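Table 4 source record.
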Amino acid sequence: MMSLQKNHLKKEKSPYLLQHVNNPVDWYPWGNEAFNLARMKNKPIFLSIGYSTCHWCHVMAHESFEDKEVAKLLNENFISIKVDREERPDIDKIYMSVCQLITGRGGWPLTIFMTPDRKPFFAATYIPKEARYGIKGLLELIPEIKNLWENNFKELLKSADEIIKTLQKFTKANIGKEFTKAILDTAYNQLLNSFDEIYGGFSSQPKFPISHNLIFLLRYWKRTGDKYALEMVETTLEQMRQGGIYDHIGFGFHRYSTDNKWILPHFEKMLYDQSLLIMVYTEAYQATKKQVFKKTAEEIIEYVLRDMKSEGGGFYSAEDADSEGEEGKFYVWGYDELKQILTPYEFNLIVKYYNIKKDGNFRPEIRINGNLNILHQTMNLKDFAKYYKITEKELIINLEKIRKKLYKIREKRIHPEKDDKILTDWNGLMIAALAKAAQVFDNNSYIESAEKALNFILKNMMGESGELLHRYRKQNAEISGYADDYAFLILGLIEMYQATFNTKYLKISLDLNAYLINHFWDKTYGGLFFTSDLNEKLLIRNKEAYDGVIPSANSVSMYNFIRLSRISGNIELENKALELSKAFSNQVNRMPTGYTQMMIGFDFFIGPSYEIVIIGNKNNKDTKKIIQYLNSIYQPNIIIILKEKKMKGISLENLVPFIKDYSQIKNQATIYVCKNQQCQLPVTEIEKIKQFLG
């Protein structure tokens, strides 16, 4: 008989691991206890990697890991290990690379069979309990793996060693040549060729909201004046906003759309998506002054501050796609249900505006039961008002009244689970997003929220020697920080300095950047490893530049190095950015659309770019007016330094030595502008700045 005692996950902090604590599978967390036991018993390891809001992870758990027959086979023949990919992205990245190498694809749940020495010999994603659709089930696969382990061990080990050798080659790419301006044109043309002219985005289906692609296109439009680059951004952002991927009742974006029209989403909500989308909608508003972009950014922020903020100020990681065992049940509406809730006028309006159908407005396949509706628009607000002969003001008032009524009803439903762990890297992105929005929208409340989150990280997730920890949950911070943690928090600190001109944030960003280079830099081939030289030693030391759904630490760091170099006057940081780009240039040149965040950094690097030093008191009207003007225009390749006569705290001149002799003209706020390392004479009139930045 199997023991009913809980497995070895009960002391873990990860919400994902704790979801499996009552499984009959005798799970272990990643660690020496499991590996030593596997060696002692000469058993292979069954490694399962997922995350708490992953729909198919839940499916595999309910189908197999809660099943006594599967558990018996696993417990008898393997040592089983569970890993939360968001807690341990270092482990996930290595074994995801293995899966992609072996199968040509990847995803979660990720399933790996490996030796006690962590050498993988079989990889897959979701595996059903029993065979179907040509896929072997666990009940068939486990005995086959057992047979291989016992009777073909040498061949199995040889295969594992070959896999590791191939992986190791990826970290030793030859140093390439410097990028040229032509790579920006190549990236643009590749995006152009894959662009969906009707619905926006750059694929058929599924469609992910890849924000750095759009930010790159905004930069490209600014550089070249190519109007279609801007049109691609506007179309994509407008279609996403109108689609079901956007939560029209509670705000925020779902993770991706399963169709090409942005209608049927995968319903989980991730903190990193909200952060990156706040940034791109904010910049799009800056570039176009379209109110819908500002409204969308502000609504995403409202959702995050309402539903994703901890008491201490840090931000939670995600909300699940599922509730009551069904994906999306929390978010969808029945036709008759809406008819009962709303007045006849409100119901008729929402039926037209959000495409509500009696039989449901999408084909649920196997994912959502019943004749249900996902709220989505086929017309923007302005066109709808014109078509239905209603004023925009009246439409806005009525829609908001309906939204609040539906939100109140929806709040009574059983909510999806919240993953309440706090991650340094994702919080860094949200801090950057809030600080950017605060600058553009002149909203101090966003700064207050960003400061609370930043102070939470610095207080709870930073060691005495300046190292960062990756995860915090239930008064416990642990797991040594990864390159993402440093790069993304530095990005947040730079934006916080640009929003507040508090030298404390600049000082911390420079210190963390120095730590990052000291402990993560590849001294042989250049670029940043994902793990520190102080981290646990794994099969390989991974090094990534690819910008997936989240941009890579190397791409963000290139951008950070350049900005910190221009702020501080430290040319060595700009040289580091150049070294970093050369470390990855061979792979970037092959497909630059996979590295659009790095292209954003390169765009800043080659210019035109601007350094602006303001001498004045930030509380004075003349200084405020200058800062507000600079924040209102779309001039992305710019850094601003504010020198006040009487500065409190850390000395700015110690961090930015070149401003020592900068002074005011006639006791007025004075602006020093440099473009591409060429400086103009100081001025006091905003009109002169407009000429310089033209």
